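Per reviewer request, we include the raw input and output of the structure prediction for the construct analysed in the revised manuscript.
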Amino acid sequence: MIKRLFFPLLAICFASCTKYLDKQPDNLLTEEMVWQTRAGAEGYLHNVYSHIYLTDGGDFASMGASDESSVSIGTTDVRQMVSGNWSPGAAYFNYWGGMYAGIRKSFVFEQNIGKVPADKLSDELKAQYKAEAIFLRGYYYFFLLRQFGPFVKVTGVLSQNDDYNKYSRATFEECTAYINELMDAAAGVLPVTWESASNNGRPTKGACLTIKAKVAQLAASELWNGNPAFADFRNQDGKQLAPAGNDPQRWLAAANAAKAVIDLNTYKLYTNLDNAGTVFNPYESVRDVHLTNWNSEIILGVVGWNRWGFAKCASPAPGGYAMYCATQNVVDAFAMKNGRVISDPASQYVENGFAANDQTETWGHHKGEWNMYADREPRFYAFINYNGRPVVAARTTDDRNLFSSPQNVDGKGRSEFYYTGKSGQRWAGSNNITGYLAQKRISSTSNIYWDQVPHQAPYILFRYAEILLDYVEALNEFQPSNGDIVKYLNLVRERAGLPGIETVYPGAVGNKVEMRKHILRERQVELCFEGDRYWTLNRRLLAGKAENTAIYGMDVNADDSNLGFSFPGFYNRKLYQQRYWRDKMYLFPISQFDMERARALVQNPGW
């Protein structure tokens, strides 16, 4: 048995192996025996991988911490955070210890993989596995940098007798350089693509370049590019941890790093034509990129994530918990099918009344639905579950009818978010607090009432659409006249069934400020519920803006007097949450538990 480790937070990555018991049972492996078999070595590598699961599905970034979503249960950690009930003592989503545990394991693996006998594991596989461990180390450091800022740079396994109090935080520049060094080392060994499906979920050269692109993007953005709020962010010896001045060249570096992924010519945006489709369908294309078991758009994904838990939390009652609520804020971000935003007088958006006809496209709105949801872009119908929208996770007519009140039984199973509906406030209590649920990643092969979620699609950590948006965002900040901005932004828009940006908004072309608005809105829609909105608002210093802390939804508490879908009072916009914000929240606090065990650490500003 691999000797178990006890990691008191930062010391997690420093402690040496100790035994659970003084006497070890004879039927358990010793630590040295682990490295004598291929199965033992691969098992340890899988354990190194295990820490990546901290970042999938229902974490704070993908659900509840930004303006795109809210978790309906008020006692959850993320609801406490956005309410201001947050301190270093609370330690919400404290991934500091978990990431350092993974980092330490990566060092142990790298140091011991060479011990596996040659007849058990080839030199080629040893090199590959070592490169995977190095990638994971860099990924975990990247996550620490993004969540907490400058980390303690550990470059090897330290003994239990080490003086942990001498390990202070590295500077932001030292941290980014180290992550890039690790990614370069891994990229030199890892393949561009894996030939066997058995390797799905393992990093590639493209994944290494993607992490470098995300690091460069973080360095270029306002949070770390000469942020005056970090002017006094220093170690105890006075060493400044954040970059002192703004450098526009960092945006060029970010653009070049994203372009390096594009230039691999390995990835492309998924469409339904890649899955036996004969006619391009934008709705199926944007929906199925998250439901297809690996495709050309996925750069890095997690294989064994909790699909059942996510589907259960994001589905309406009575089968689901109606817990992962989309907000009116993100609903308003989706364009009309003509490609115009709803605030544009030429968009043909109608706020009130019921639709007189079905939308021409089969995926669109239906007669009798609220006009707010009529003639919207395909991504809206793929990603948002609104009042009256048919339930996705129900396979048969009888199953769909389970979601319907007696007067609505028609085999469609429309989501009833109004007050007396089956997923409404009177029926489901505190659930569904906005009148919307997140529908992305919910498969029609599921049958949520019966707890069946059979599809095997991965949770996507990074995909090509994000890289395209990273590239155009950075290029627009450095060189807004560059033609690649329109070219690559349009790839994302056109896959979503929208006309080119230069056709709809020609005035934005070459205009940094206007194009920035369109690019950030495109990120908000394309990458909704994938964590990007939280990290984008943070790195661009936008999370504290009034429009991003005032959270709106429909009037789910308006008593419809059993009028159901025909009750117009439900569709009144309501400010249901004014979120607490202080600028210190751009970084997570290091937990007090960690601070007391590593005295050289300095706390993040404001905490």
